[in-house]
Design goal:
The chain is an alpha/beta fold. The protein is about 35% helix and about 15% strand.
C-alpha cells in the first residue's frame, strides 16, 4: 500500500463561551467509527481517531484540528457526521483541503446514510460512505492506497465523478468483522469525565416513527454475536474499570428472547456493572424488567413523545397511551428508574395538547424527563413530506438543534412557542431542575439523561 495512515475525525459540537465549553450531555464515542477503525486495522491500515469532543476541542477550533493533523500527517482523512455536526465537517474539510490539496477526504455517518444525494452535492469531499461502513470504507481506502478506486463500491458516493453519483448500499454480514476498536478511544477520559461507556448489541430498528430515520435507513434488526457482546463488556468493565454502560441500541427490547439471553449471560459471567437501555412501550412486562434489573439494569429510556393517541398514530409510533402507562408501571414495579422522552411541536399539535402531555408526564412521575423541540431531519418522512404534514423549517443551520433550539414549527405553533413550551415542561418536571451542573448530576447518577437546554455552562475537561 502506498497510503497506510488513516485518521478518522469525530467533530465537536461543543460551543465555547469565554473560557468555558457548553458540553453536549450524554456524550459517547461514535460507535460506527470504532467499527470502521477495527475493520481498517484488520485490513492493514494504521488508524487514529481524533475524538474531538472528549479532547475538549470546541466546535469552531479549526486551528487545533489542523495542528493535530500536522503533528501526525495522515494519508487519508475520514469524517463521521450526524446532521447537526455536518456543517462543522464541511467547514473543516474546506480548511484541510486548503492546507493539503491532494489529501483524500471521506465522510460517512448517520447524515450521509440519511441524505446520500444531498451529501453528494458537496465538493469538499472526495468520497462519502452511506450505511454500515466496514466493507465500503475498507474497499475505498484500499483503492486509494493502491492508486485505483473501483467505481462500484456499494454505499460509496463519488464526488469527483462527472457527474457525481453514489452506489446503492448493501447489507453487511455483521458477524464477519472484528470487535469495536475501543482501544483507539481515550477510555480513561471517558471514565473520568462522563463516567460511562457505550456498546451496541444489535443494528437496525423495527419502529417506523416519522421523525426518526433509523427504521427507514436500516429497517431490519440484526443481532451481534453474543460472544462479541460479552467480550466487549468484559473488556470495558473488567479490564478498563467502567462501572456504567449504555446499551445504545435503537430499541434494546425489540425481541424479548434476545434481552433474556444477554441478561442471562451477564449474570452468569459475574460481571458487576450497571447499565441502561432504550425500550419500546409495548411488548414489555414486569418479568422482563425484573430480569434486566437482576442483570444490573438501572434505567430504562422510553419514547413517550405525546399523550394523545391521535398523535401517536399519526407519527406511527407503534403504541398508544395505555402502552406507555403499562410499561412505566411495570418498570416501576421492577425497581427501575424510568426516563421519558417527549417531543414538542409534532404535526398538528396545539399548545393545549402539549400542556396535556406535560400533565400526563407529571402523572407518570418518571425519575427523569427529556423534552425536545421538534426537528426535521433528512431521511425521515417528516422531512421528505413536510408540506403534507404542514411542517416548516425555521432554522436552516442544522447545528442549532444540538443546542436545544427549536428549528422547525408546525401548523399550530411557531418555533418560539415550541421553545417556550419546552421550558415550561422543564420547569414542571424533574423536580423543577431547569438548570443544573452536568458533572454533579452525572457523578451522582450516571444513568440520568440531562438535556442540553437545561445544562449550565461548565468546563467538561476540568
Amino acid at each position: 500500500m502506498n497510503c497506510s495512515n488513516v485518521t478518522l475525525i469525530n467533530p465537536s459540537w461543543q460551543k465555547r463561551t469565554g473560557a468555558k465549553l457548553a458540553a453536549m450531555p450524554d456524550l459517547y464515542p461514535p460507535m460506527g467509527v470504532g467499527c470502521v477503525a477495527s475493520a481498517l486495522r484488520a485490513a492493514g491500515f494504521s488508524v487514529r481517531i481524533l475524538d474531538l469532543p472528549i479532547m475538549g476541542v470546541a466546535e469552531d477550533d479549526d486551528a487545533t484540528v489542523l495542528d493535530l493533523l500536522k503533528a501526525e500527517p495522515p494519508d487519508i482523512v475520514g469524517f463521521t457526521a450526524v446532521t447537526m455536526t455536518y456543517p462543522t465537517c464541511r467547514r473543516l474539510a474546506e480548511k484541510i483541503r486548503a492546507t493539503w490539496p491532494d489529501l483524500p477526504l471521506l465522510i460517512g455517518g448517520v447524515h450521509v446514510t440519511d441524505a446520500p444525494q444531498m451529501t453528494l452535492e458537496d465538493p469538499q469531499f472526495d468520497y462519502s460512505v452511506a450505511g454500515e461502513g466496514e466493507a465500503a470504507a475498507t474497499a475505498l481506502c484500499r483503492g486509494i492506497a493502491e492508486g485505483h478506486v473501483p467505481g462500484d463500491i456499494p454505499g460509496v458516493g463519488y464526488h469527483r465523478a462527472d457527474p457525481p453519483y453514489c452506489r446503492p448500499r448493501a447489507d453487511l454480514t455483521i458477524t464477519d468483522y472484528p470487535p469495536t476498536a475501543y482501544d483507539l478511544y481515550d477510555l480513561d477520559a471517558y471514565r473520568r469525565i462522563y463516567k460511562r461507556m457505550s456498546i451496541i448489541t444489535q443494528r437496525g430498528c423495527n419502529a417506523r416513527c416519522i421523525f426518526c430515520s433509523s427504521g427507514f435507513t436500516m429497517p431490519r434488526v440484526r443481532y451481534l454475536p453474543l460472544e462479541r457482546v460479552m467480550s466487549e463488556l468484559t473488556f470495558l468493565v473488567r479490564d478498563k474499570g467502567f462501572e456504567y454502560i449504555n446499551i445504545y441500541d435503537s430499541n434494546f427490547t425489540s425481541r424479548n428472547d434476545w434481552v433474556h439471553k444477554i441478561c442471562d449471560a451477564i449474570i452468569e459471567s459475574g460481571l458487576r456493572f450497571r447499565w441502561r437501555c432504550f425500550s419500546k412501550s409495548n411488548g414489555v412486562d414486569v418479568a422482563l424488567f425484573r430480569k434486566m434489573r437482576a442483570a444490573g439494569c438501572s434505567h430504562v429510556l422510553f419514547g413517550v413523545e405525546s399523550s394523545h393517541d391521535t398523535t401517536l398514530k399519526l407519527i406511527r409510533k407503534g403504541n398508544r397511551r395505555h402502552h406507555v402507562v403499562s410499561a412505566m408501571e411495570a418498570a416501576r414495579q421492577a425497581g427501575l428508574n424510568r426516563v421519558a422522552y417527549s417531543i414538542v411541536g409534532l404535526p398538528g399539535e396545539t399548545r393545549e395538547m402539549v400542556l396535556e402531555t406535560i400533565a400526563f408526564l407529571e402523572a407518570l412521575d418518571a425519575e427523569w424527563n427529556v423534552v425536545s423541540p421538534i426537528a426535521l431531519m433528512p431521511g425521515t418522512p417528516l422531512y421528505d413530506q413536510m408540506s403534507a404534514y404542514r411542517m416548516v423549517i425555521d432554522e436552516a443551520d442544522w447545528s442549532q438543534g444540538s443546542q436545544g433550539m427549536a428549528t422547525a414549527s408546525n401548523s399550530e405553533m411557531g418555533a418560539a412557542e415550541i421553545e417556550a413550551l419546552c421550558e415550561e415542561a422543564f420547569a414542571r418536571l424533574n423536580g423543577g431542575r431547569d438548570t443544573y451542573n452536568w458533572h454533579e448530576v452525572v457523578s451522582n447518577d450516571p444513568g440520568t439523561c440531562p438535556h442540553v437546554s437545561m445544562m449550565s455552562l461548565v468546563d467538561p475537561v476540568s
